[in-house]
Fold these 4 entries.
Entry 1:
Amino acid sequence: VTHVADARTSVLHPASHTHRQLSEEQLIEAGVRPDLIRFSVGIENIEDIIQDIDQALNR
């Protein structure tokens, strides 16, 4: 579960996660596009974050 005050890095898809209860029209009104990704950088070692991103993108 991702929390706003979390100190860990997280990536999520708001349309299917935090805003999943909204209709398509409500998503558009809220500015939550279907291709929107929320990326919150935490306090982990930056090299670990970069390595994790690289690994995820190269799968």
Entry 2:
Amino acid sequence: MSSFIKWSPQVRDLVGDEVLRTLCRTTKDYNCMRCERDGRAARERTHVIVVCPPGMPYFIQFAHGRCAPSQVIRLPQSAMTGEGDPNYSEQVITTQFLWPTSEGFLPGLIIDRPPGLTVVRANGDVDDLWTQLLLRVGWDLLVSLDQPCRHVNTSAVELSDDGGTGRVVFDDPDHSDSRLVLVDRLPALLPEWRQAAADTGCIRILAGTIGTASADHRVTEADVIAAVQQGSVVGALVPVAAR
């Protein structure tokens, strides 16, 4: 059991003595949350940091004693949605698609967002927190590109009646009277796409960290397939609403 692991009273009140005893017994090597260099909990002073995303379970990180104090970090909603960042919307790549069906065409959007806040779980899995938000409001984690997506009423594509563009919003799972913005402004909409949206009343949306948001090329089917195989894409059939 490591005696080098230290925590603040706030951390102890939140996670409890049993969790802290388990950390002392099992924690060995770690990656420092602050300097991102390796740390050794059995040999050097190590501080416990608890991060609390809004509406989600907390997760525990570690830092060298010299790098950061033990503390509880409560993240604002904007840390997960990009709200308040004037450059964030420019980093989101939204592409229009028309998927052929037996009844015509189904309009679609592929939303590629830059990597956001992630959590590394104990088993090594990495969860993107804004993707987890969409899963909480009924979106599906995609395992293949042709996977059917469920229809969700917790989200909407709000289109302007005057021929302008629109935005994509979804319910805040922690505040029933508010909505969060997934895309604050869609690109100029093609007439064929807008007509298909009017005919079907819904949009098939695939959203995730696909990788083109930081690259100099348009999203391709191969990009989306690769992201789906990595478990980085969620999808839903989203109703159209007037804005």
Entry 3:
Amino acid sequence: MSSRLDLILAKKELVVGVNRVYEPFYIQDAKEGYPGFDMELAKLYADYLGVALKIKPLKTFRQFSDEIAAGTIDIALAGMSTDLSRGKSVTFSDPYLLTTPAGLVNKRSLPPEPEGSIVTTRTFKSIDDLAVINALSFSVRSNTTNHNYLLRKFGKNQIYSYLSDSIAIDALTKGNVICFVADSLYILSLLQKQPSLKASYVALVNPVMDEYISAALPLNDLIFADNFNFFVKELKRTGVIEGLRSKYFLGSSWVK
């Protein structure tokens, strides 16, 4: 059975599915030099293979997995988290980024910091730190790793799930919930786009659980996966991945 990699090299074109609703992995109408993290990764991989690059923006995991299986895209680079159920329909690469469930919490919901230099001051740095607060309420995009995490960890609290992150953020800014939950990379990029949020909200981005951001490839195509994994390993070794991470998640130059 031939690998999808053979077909890519034969047609001299790599078709990559990207996430059209997840900046800065993919940025619509991007600024010059800032196409998005996954867009830059896709271009580097196409260059490594010596083929042309074609981009197809999609939205849901089901769309990505169906189109990979159908051959209409070859690989998905979409800020995508791995999990066991997803792994039944695609083969995941080794992770190229690490993230964690994170939160943006209303400052007024947190207890005031004690005055003076009291060593036992409790600071809130991760979502798990919120467990000591009464009357918690969360907003989150539905059917995501972060949604599942909330159901496991904070199932006794009010959890409102929405079809998009933007609607879930609205629930926070309108005061309907105390905390918006997404992965830490999303929270960091949100604060780059809307720095004014820092006045009213605290980012809780310390790790509570490893979330792997990986490429999705055709199921059981180990030749293709091995090729991509070597490519990612070399980009990590040479600092390219870290450079892209800093460019998009620690800086705001990409913001339109």
Entry 4:
Amino acid sequence: MRQVETAVVILNWNGEALLRRYLPAVVSTVKEEDALVVVADNGSTDGSLHYVESIFPEVEVLRLDQNYGFARGYNEAFKRLPSVVEAEYYVLLNDDVETPQGWLAPLISRLRDDLRCGAVMPKVLSARRKEYFEYAGASGGFLDWFGYPYCRGRLLDTIEKDAGQYDEPMKVHWASGACLSIRRSVYEQEGGFEERFFAHMEEIDLCWRLRCRGLEVWVDPRSEVYHLGGGTLGYESPKKVYLNHRNSLWMLRRNLRGGERVLVLTFRVAMDMVVALVYGLKGKGGALVATVRAVGEGIFSSCPRAKDYTYSKVSRSRICLLWRYFVRRQRRYSEISE
């Protein structure tokens, strides 16, 4: 069995085209690090694994028996990983991420040097427009008071150009699942992702739980990667809309308590229904139906319970993102963080 400091794990499902495009750089850029690249396959039926095994014998392949989705897929992969490699740190890397030279070292250095840091992400830029931040994480993720996520560099659908304005490493509320570095011990202690989420919001839920444990989540822009995005589900896919809204409500139910939970969820449901109405006015019937269905299931279905921990009121931004964005017309992170 191999022993390395870091296992870089790429979850794949029928992603041969993406692996051909991005895997060579991943393998090349970790050669100087004490790291092993692992492709965990979610039951692909294309030529993904043939490509990996024939071109990159140094890459370890883990075969899962079906498509478990993002959340359970990673959990299943990490259950099997110790049978082939022992690693102190895990990096969860999407198959549509471009990794330039030097991307890995700052992330592992942050985890190695700061025991309070449970997870860390790089600056995530767009692979399509490399001078802009990317939707899924940008330069660090935050939550408004009602659980709506936003980023340093991205508010709702407005994405800022990267001019170095958010290059300071800092503590954040959540780290992007596109490229998430975490201690193995922390991941295992928390039981990994909540599997019923299937995909979307599971990394935000995990980071919330880490912060309730007293750990910190960081962004370190000394490391940067380029994310294509929408590789499995397009940004306006009704299924993606459904998963985002439902899982966000589940996350609030799991991690809030008492009167605060009732208040936040009441306002949140009202705002989500307004969002559904906007979809309808724009002629996006699929997204409208997906949002209404997500609200119903997010509130009334049995909610996956959070693992027991001592509840603590971890910080959320004391703002209403929708008010700031649509009424006060604030479009930049720097405007709402003042």
